[in-house]
Amino acid sequence: MTTLALAIALFLLANLVVALVAAARGPTSADRMLMALLFGTTGTGILALLAAAGAGAAAVDVALVLALLAAIGGIAFAKRAWRARHHVSD
């Protein structure tokens, strides 16, 4: 199980590298925010897999904090985008 968890974590890490390149090239701020959300969810998955592979319970705590920050960041971006769109149409 440990080898499988580490292999999946490595695959997810490679996915994050591709997302980093896409975030750097993203034409809009919405594209960049989606990549930031991808970092949060994929990072949570990687940390949970590392915790299952034996990294310890602290990795689970960090994963939960990362998931919470990603969710808060997504909500903040959506509220800001909604306000900007609402004020432009007036």
Automatic annotation (TrEMBL):
Pfam families xref list:
MrpF_PhaF
**One GO cellular component from the entry?**
plasma membrane
Q: Where is the protein situated, by its record's location annotation?
A: Cell membrane
Topology with regard to the membrane?
Multi-pass membrane protein
Listed A to Z, the keywords are: Cell membrane, Membrane, Transmembrane, Transmembrane helix
Carries keyword GTP-binding?
Answer: no
Q: Name one GO molecular function term.
A: monoatomic ion transmembrane transporter activity
Q: Which residues form a coiled coil?
A: none
Q: Has the keyword Metal-binding been applied to this entry?
A: no
Q: Where are the transmembrane segments?
A: 47-77
Any idea what this protein is called?
Answer: pH regulation protein F
Organism expressing this protein natively: Thiorhodococcus minor
